[in-house]
Amino acid sequence: METANKVKMSDQQTVIVINLNPYIVMAVQSLSNIVKSSLGPQGLDKMLVDDIGDVTITNDGATILKQLEVQHPAAKVLVELS
User: Fold this and answer.
1) Which of 21, 50, 60, 81 is most buried by a 10 A CB count?
2) Is 60 exceeded by the pLDDT of residue 70?
3) Alpha carbon of 39 to those of 5, 42, 46, 72, 75: distances in Å?
4) Count of domains observed in the chain
5) Average pLDDT of 21-33?
């Protein structure tokens, strides 16, 4: 479960520190590792093959994420937001 702690830096600044479940962090890192190589001006194309053999070649992160079959609830939310 996530817990939030408030840390007072000064009279005007308050930072909220969130302790995340390590499985959420791993799911998000996995998604970022999949998309990472397709970002930027030297981004590489990815070839995606679905269950019936249709091939999609793209370097668009949203397209890549939407083609994935994601099981983790937090990762599903990120895919839907993309």
Assistant:
1) 60
2) yes
3) 34, 7, 11, 23, 19
4) 1
5) 86
